[in-house]
Design the sequence.
């Protein structure tokens, strides 16, 4: 199981040209969900003023995160984006600007000069939905793919049903009601469940190895911290149904009673 | 004000159509004008269970496509004058049901009926989504086994995110649990989940427990909703269920294993 930020459904991979024995590489196509910084006007001072507090709110989410700069919403005629300063700003905040989308030919030339990729212009509806990661948060109940994406720490006080997913971006997730088998909790920080936990819990989704999971009644199908996971089969029976905490100890996932 | 009730489950073969037939008949017998709609396009069964399969001329899909009007498609039940059946099409696929089309039909029915019972197909695809989209109330038909409980749980999640009430941020759908095919002696032997086990996971208002019964199969074969068989435990349990849905208090029956003590064995054989 991979716990990268690849969207679970969209990634389509295929093998290309492997003929002789044990090829040295595979050429694959994969889809990634990336945050998009959509510039609405050319005022880098304002961008900086708005971006800095946002990053402070969820530093884990932006640390070493590839981002795309979207130019399509900029008013026409303003050719000089000032890529040098913008890239410096994003890098300074821990992000890795990888490319631009939209914009004019002159802007593309400027972007290429700064080693940025030019990404395809088409905005599919599902891509637009993924941009919600940096845009306003989506409520748990209404999100179309049943993923509630919440920025910062988040509290849930109603039962999480099979098939529902909740992701607390850049923060902790606290659940006060039962989490049923087939439900998924994800958080960049810690996960707390104060009722029977029968679903999946993935803490430290962006690689935070200090994240922990706390359960009042552990019956989980799968638990994972920063990609180190354990399925129900591998959880000792003696720990099931108990108050426990789960943490990483030198890359080893440990489950201990509280 | 008409109420639209969806009979749903996720899993197939748990007793949705039996329940839709029994519940609509129960509501109609109590004097409510009731219509029951089969949403299982391509695999229609409700007409068989209701015993009106030889009277189907037009169906739900014809009405949506404007090939017939509602009154031509509705079949009046011969046993109860308050009950009407809107059969599904057997020859089309589920895409024949469009959201707008279903909405218009339900709106039209709401003018004359008190209760609109929607018999959902199994699964969580288009047909099931159409059946639940406009619902005011949902009856989750669940068997006492883990796969059925999980599927009902999944369906509850979908009701709370993809129904009209959820999308328009109205008061949420009222959700009820109906446990069917319950066999007390198998629960005692640990072969089936008990009432408490199911309630622990789903945590819904319990509308009733329908015992596993030969009467259900006999009733389906004969085209008589089982609620008409007031000699059978399943028929009585459905009567209780309808009463509870309408707000009456009824004690739960048929939960315990019949005790075959020494005396009953001696005297009743």
Sequence:
């Amino acid at each position: 199981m991979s716990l990268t930020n690849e969207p679970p459904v969209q990634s389509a991979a295929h093998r290309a040209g492997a003929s002789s024995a044990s090829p040295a590489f595979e050429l694959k196509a994969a889809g990634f969900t990336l945050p998009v910084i959509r510039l609405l006007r050319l005022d880098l001072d304002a961008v900086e003023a708005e971006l800095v507090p946002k990053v402070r709110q969820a530093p884990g989410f932006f640390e070493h995160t590839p981002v795309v700069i979207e130019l399509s919403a900029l008013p026409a005629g303003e050719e000089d984006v000032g890529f040098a300063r913008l890239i410096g700003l994003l890098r300074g905040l821990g992000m890795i600007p990888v490319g631009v989308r939209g914009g004019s030919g002159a802007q593309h030339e400027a972007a290429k000069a700064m080693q940025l990729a030019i990404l395809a212009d088409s905005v599919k509806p599902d891509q637009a939905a993924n941009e919600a990661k940096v845009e306003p948060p989506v409520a748990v109940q209404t999100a179309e793919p049943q993923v509630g994406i919440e920025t910062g720490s988040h509290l849930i006080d109603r039962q999480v049903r099979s098939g529902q997913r909740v992701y607390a971006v850049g923060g902790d997730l606290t659940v006060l009601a039962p989490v049923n088998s087939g439900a998924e909790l994800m958080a960049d920080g810690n996960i707390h469940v104060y009722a029977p936990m029968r679903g999946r819990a993935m803490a430290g989704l962006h690689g935070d190895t200090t994240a922990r999971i706390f359960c009042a009644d552990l019956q989980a199908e799968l638990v994972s911290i920063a990609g180190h996971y354990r399925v129900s089969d591998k959880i000792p029976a003696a720990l099931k149904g108990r108050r426990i905490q789960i943490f990483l100890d030198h890359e080893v996932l440990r489950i201990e009673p509280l | 004000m008409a109420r639209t009730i969806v009979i749903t489950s996720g899993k197939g073969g748990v007793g949705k159509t039996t329940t839709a037939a029994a519940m609509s008949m129960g509501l109609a017998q109590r004097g409510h004008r009731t219509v029951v709609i089969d949403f299982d396009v391509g695999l229609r069964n409700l007409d068989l269970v209701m015993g009106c399969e030889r009277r189907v001329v037009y169906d739900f899909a014809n009405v949506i496509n404007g090939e017939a009007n509602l009154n031509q498609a509705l079949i009046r039940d011969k046993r109860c004058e308050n009950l009407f059946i809107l059969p599904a099409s057997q020859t089309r696929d589920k895409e024949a049901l469009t959201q707008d089309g279903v909405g218009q039909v339900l709106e039209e029915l709401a003018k004359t009926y008190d209760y609109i019972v929607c018999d959902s197909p199994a699964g969580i695809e288009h047909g099931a989504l159409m059946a639940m989209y406009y619902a005011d109330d949902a009856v989750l038909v669940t068997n006492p086994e883990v796969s059925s409980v999980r599927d009902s749980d999944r369906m509850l999640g979908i009701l709370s995110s993809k129904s009209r009430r959820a999308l328009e941020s109205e008061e949420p759908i009222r959700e009820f649990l109906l446990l069917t095919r319950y066999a007390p002696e198998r629960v005692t032997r640990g072969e089936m989940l008990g009432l408490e086990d199911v309630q622990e996971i789903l945590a819904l208002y319990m509308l009733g427990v329908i015992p596993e019964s030969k009467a259900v199969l006999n009733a389906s074969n004969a085209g008589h909703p089982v609620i008409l068989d007031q000699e059978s435990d399943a028929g009585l349990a459905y009567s209780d269920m309808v009463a509870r849905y309408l707000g009456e208090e009824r004690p739960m029956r048929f939960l315990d294993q019949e005790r075959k003590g020494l005396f009953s064995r001696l005297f009743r054989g």
Summary: Residues 1-19, 123-146 of chain A have pLDDT under 50 and may be disordered. The first helix of chain A runs from residue 44 to 57.
